[in-house]
Amino acid sequence: MRSETAQLIKLEDYKETPYVIENVSLVFKLQPEATEVISTLTLSRREGTEVGAPLELDGDELTLVSVAIDRAVLAEEAYEASPKKLVVHTPPADTFKLEVVTKVNPTTNTKLEGLYLSQGIYCTQCEAEGFRRITYYYDRPDVLSVFTTRIEADKATNPILLGNGNPKDAEDIEGTDRHFAVWHDPHPKPAYLFALVAGDLACTSEKYTTASGKPVDLNIYVEKGNEDRTDWSMDSLVRSMRWDEKVFGREYDLDVFNIVAVSAFNMGAMENKGLNIFNDKFILADSDTATDMDYEGIETVVAHEYFHNWTGNRITCREWFQLCLKEGLTVFRDQEFSSDERSRPVKRIADVIRLKSRQFPEDQGPLSHPVRPTEYKEINNFYTATVYDKGAELVRMIKTILGADGFRKGMDLYFERHDGDASTIEDFLKCFEDANQLDLSHFSLWYHQSGTPFVKANGSYDEAAKTFTLELEQNTAATPGQDEKKPFFIPIRFGLVGPNGDDLAYTSVEGAHVDGDLLHLTEDKQTVVFQGIGSKPVPSLLREFSAPVKLESTLSREDQIFLMRHDIDPFNRWQATQTLMTELLIELTNGEEPAGKDAFIEALGHMAEDENLDYAFRGFG
Ligand code: SER
Ligand code: ZN
């Protein structure tokens, strides 16, 4: 946490760096208390940058040993160095090599950002701004470069040396107890995806062949003694890789994929290119001690980090305001993976419970912020439920609005158009617009306007006219910095459930754009009239929880029980059960005898035996 006086960083101030880093060569001479880092950057002046414009690189608690340009040591007046910054006043040429030597202390680095040593294992964490604790650099996501890393360490204590990309070379260093390994990552990446691990680790391996026939070595490294607890994470990894090929057409792109599980790790896990690092609670499991939830958690996190390879790594964020571009999208992808692997309705219910219990309160409180914020003081405070979980809901809504095919077309275009880019939410949305020839500008408000919309729905049936009228209203309370709220574009999946439990067909609709079972609520108030409704329906609204809103419906208890028994949407069967159960419990607690109690219990029993529902749902519901 930075202090109140920390500088406010604003999206509107975004500017490209004056120099481009074409490639990076790093040498790490690992020592517990004094690791030397030799960084050689090939830099070139960006078009439009004045000749000799200063080069300003980020640092954090760094000790500078030396600076040279094109092999000539710089005179003291040619640069300025502090633990937080290195400024070269007038770089000499359009393209030059900057060689910087720094010293860091991995042992005392208890922040667990940058390079640290814990339980005898050297490990890094660079997202969001940890790389600047290793060497001076443009430590920002829009500076992409090709990294080659040489790691040198004591061989007995660090037999395993891992870096990003593909292994190139490994040998003993003659006349010493040390050895080295060289790793090369051909995919340009920002510094936050850099990683290094060195230690005495056990490994389990498996061979994988991608859909197009490329072999990949999969390895999971763990602290010794844990190697028999990696079966499930390896299995999850293989299934994730297959799923991404099938569902998003995305293949893995290096010769090896390494996972390292360590006990000292701040974040749950981290998607460093080709070298994912995990807190070991998201890798290790055995059937004697792990619960079903532990297994699910491992599967989700392994998949999430793997999926970042395309959504986050191949296409990254232009600046940290765009964090939801990689996180919201990747959470959506891991949710879909789990839904396909397990019970889709139960997964949806679990995700909605999580959203309502973590994100809705955030959006109602003093920390409410848009999914794509526009200013921050400390980026580490923005790894929030809003960015991750509401971010995932926004991607889900895009899919709901476009349908599965339209969504896939947009994603394909995104991968094609932006592979290798540092992108923005605007770029992302434009791909869906272009691939589907539609305008998402109203929808995009979800990224900028914070708060949870409150939606009210009231239905009435006119038997003589055979019409069903739905009065809809939306309202979003003011949130910090946003007093006036505009109406959101809210996709409401719905059905008008007829007396025999089937959805009733309508002949025409007025008052809203309605396409099949999807209604677009776009204004503060809308009166939607469905024509040709032969009998009185029970409206089932917000099926699959199609938008992150609070829905207040005026359904009677009888109608709710009806939906519990008949709705074709399992989510709303569960929702009706929850709503009623809560009401009944409150009444019972107040000593009242709730109306409809027996019918409710009967409906519950019916649900437990309903063969149309999967076992997981019946057990859960
Ligand atoms: N980028 C990491 C993740 O979400 C850490 O938050 O996977
Ligand atoms: Zn993530």
Write a brief caption for the model.
The protein is of the alpha+beta class and 621 residues long. 28% of the residues lie in helices and 31% in strands. The chain folds into five domains: 19-199, Immunoglobulin-like (Sandwich); 203-285, Zincin-like (2-Layer Sandwich); 316-448, Neutral Protease, domain 2 (Orthogonal Bundle); 453-554, Aminopeptidase N, middle-beta domain (Immunoglobulin-like), CATH 2.60.40.1840; 556-621, no CATH class.
Q: What is the strand tally?
A: 33
Class from helix and strand fractions: alpha+beta
Radius of gyration: 28 Å
The stretches of 5 or more residues where confidence is low (pLDDT under 50) are none
Overall spatial form: elongated
